[in-house]
Amino acid sequence: MPASQSAKDFFRPLAVGAPTPLTEIPFRPSRAIHFFDPSNAKMAAKIPAMVGTVDVLLGNLEDAVKADNKLAAREGLITIGRETDFGPTQLWTRINSLDSPWALDDLTALVEGIGDKLDVIMVPKVQGAEDIHYVDRLLAQLEAKAGLDRPILVHAILETARGMANVEEICGASPRMQGLSLGPADLAADRRMKTTRVGGGHPGYLVRQDPATGDEAGINAARTTYQQDLWHYTIARMVDACAMHGIYPYYGPFGDIADVVACEDQFRNAFLLGCVGTWSLHPKQIAIAHKVFSPSVEDIAHARRVVAAMGDGTGAVMLDGKMEDDASLKQCLVVVRLAEQLAAIDPELKKQYDAIEVG
Ligand SMILES: CC(C)(COP(=O)(O)OP(=O)(O)OC[C@H]1O[C@@H](n2cnc3c(N)ncnc32)[C@H](O)[C@@H]1OP(=O)(O)O)[C@@H](O)C(=O)NCCC(=O)NCCSC(=O)C[C@H](O)C(=O)O
Ligand SMILES: [Mg+2]
């Protein structure tokens, strides 16, 4: 909440006739936010058949859509939105950046055309709370005009150094804030990092084993190196800011579509650090995201054992030589609850999770 605003005003609609803001952002599984270009006829044709196979379908209007295709992408998304029954799958969009020639018309046309179908609007290159305040008021006006009865939520991409520095105020800028994603490519450029990739690691970012001896021979001898995670600090900051404000953090794009192994590693790092999902740029990344962002059968079995052993949730017990207490119970409950939420929307997972026997 901005410092200048009173608590009672925070949840008031920002336009007469706009829907009342939510006081809590509901958790809806969003393991993969699948990007498609609505101006690409081949890709767009595949979207109706992808309903139910992925948690979120996102019509991308920003980067990766050619300037000449911006209007076709916007119109294409409106057509897909109107003609498709999305069932359990969420429909999101990524609009163009707020300083671009397209953002205003993106918001106006999308809310008027498919505001009743859109769950979340992703805003790229968010710099600070002022960007969210602008979108917040404009959406309220457009929702009122379109007669919508539920607010469209807002998701910010962190892809500038200023946005990172303002991450907490961005998360708390509006009751519409649903979550954050990392935009590693734009962020790297803005920070003047020397990477040239879309997400993932870099072989030059490493630590090296100490030399066995301090002389030239030791220094020049073979020494083990370990590649480090370029994104650890950024993702951890993002996760804390989201948790503090009751909203959801996501990893972003992994551009090396062919490297499914490193993609899985990057997604898993984000999952373990607290992210609830990631972007998928190509159909083959959906299965990777679903696998990683759904707790494993082994983790659920262990978590359920701890829950059962902890009884009323207080005190300490020994399980397999390890101490469990109130705090490890809370971690296990995070896993158990996530499993329940995912089982409710994914029949295949439900079967696997229901079959787990708690020893
Ligand atoms: C990455 C791609 C350009 C690859 O496309 P293509 O060369 O066509 O791949 P394939 O030949 O392997 O495709 C096989 C079939 O699958 C269809 N396809 C491909 N991608 C998608 C998709 N995303 N959704 C639905 N269907 C898809 C192809 O049409 C092929 O169909 P068929 O010929 O009938 O078999 C492409 O995947 C792509 O453009 N993906 C999306 C890229 C994107 O959205 N980028 C923006 C997000 S990342 C970013 O913006 C950076 C971030 O902001 C930051 O700052 O870090
Ligand atoms: Mg970007």
UniProtKB/TrEMBL annotation:
The keyword Magnesium applies. Residues 33-198 form the HpcH/HpaI aldolase/citrate lyase domain. InterPro entries: Aldolase/citrate-lyase_domain, Citrate_lyase_beta/mcl1/mcl2, Pyrv/PenolPyrv_kinase-like_dom, Pyrv_kinase-like_dom_sf. The keyword Cell membrane does not apply. Keywords: Lyase, Magnesium, Metal-binding. GO terms for molecular function: lyase activity. Its cofactor is Mg(2+). SUPFAM superfamilies: Phosphoenolpyruvate/pyruvate domain. PANTHER family: CITRATE LYASE SUBUNIT BETA, LYASE BETA SUBUNIT, PUTATIVE (AFU_ORTHOLOGUE AFUA_4G13030)-RELATED. This is HpcH/HpaI aldolase/citrate lyase family protein. The lineage of its organism: Bacteria, Bacillati, Actinomycetota, Actinomycetes, Propionibacteriales.
